[in-house]
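Dock magnesium ion; give full complex structure.
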Amino acid sequence: MSGLELKNIQKSYGSVEVIKGVDLEIASKEFVVFVGPSGCGKSTLLRMIAGLEPITGGDLTIGGKRMNDVDPSKRGIAMVFQTYALYPHMTVRENMGFALRFAGVKKPEIAKQVDEAARILELGPLMERRPKELSGGQRQRVAIGRAIVRNPEVFLFDEPLSNLDAELRVHMRIEIARLHKELQTTIIYVTHDQVEAMTLADKIVVLREGVIEQVGTPLKLYDDPDNLFVAGFIGSPKMNFLKGVVEGGAVRLPDYGNQVLPANVKVADGTPVTVGIRPEHFKISGSSMLELKIELIEHLGGETYAYAGYGAGELLTLATNNDRQIKAGDTYQARFDPASMLLFGADAQRIR
Ligand code: ADP
Ligand code: MG
């Protein structure tokens, strides 16, 4: 099994820099997710690893071997795309065996590999169907099967679930997690969906405009983000951000009626900061308190979200621990533990 190393990897199209020096280590058997908004360079980075896109600068090693100029077919990788691109006139079995047949593998060996992939993906009953006789989820399973039969050291997935409806996406997400357990290979998985990233990854790489913003386990990024971008990108509903000014180590909130949040910030008075509080960190107890007016309630059954503001401040999202008594129009004392409050400077970096 192979790990990968990216050293100062860059990509330009003409004078446009798309990937701006990415350093990253991926351990053997690790499930790594590249996540970030559309256009941030996720696919470009993945395609450079696959060899589908030339690398402008830096070094890519897979299994300890420099791969920058190695043919895609010799990198020990297999890629699964968002669009399945199955051959319409071939059966599932033929689609899955195609790459092996093309590579001149003997028939009995192809049958063995294809049957094994079909078993893993529970495709057995569908093997003689053609793609048009399959659902979207089944087609994507065939596309994954096609990658499995090649027995790669590294799987690359580029938004493989984006074309599926919400329910099927959840189902396939669990299948892919199971697949990783069973195959024990390195997986690099690209998505713009932070929930997919949180649920699948051993390690998440957050990308923005061709730069890595932070690398870490899902819970590390959730609990301890390095900057405003990661804090806002990871988590649903999103972290609340409140503009504040430091005064005597505490934070005054001009847009929320100048309420003051006790803190122990070691920056100069007058420094502008952004306070980050996750919706679920508002509680009915806690030594910090923010008086808010409830504007809107959402009952989801298992959870009740309240949207609350004060003065000129934006509405904040409060997860209320399913408080079904809370009403719009209520004045509400949103309490929290000061330790759960994150602070960011004017440069968007965390103040720790
Ligand atoms: P993502 O997969 O994160 O949505 P991409 O890797 O596809 O983003 O694209 C990253 C950036 O590179 C985008 O701004 C895109 O417009 C640009 N880009 C991608 N392919 C090309 C190309 N062949 N020529 C010029 N620019 C490109
Ligand atoms: Mg993409």
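Observed: The longest helix spans residues 166-183.
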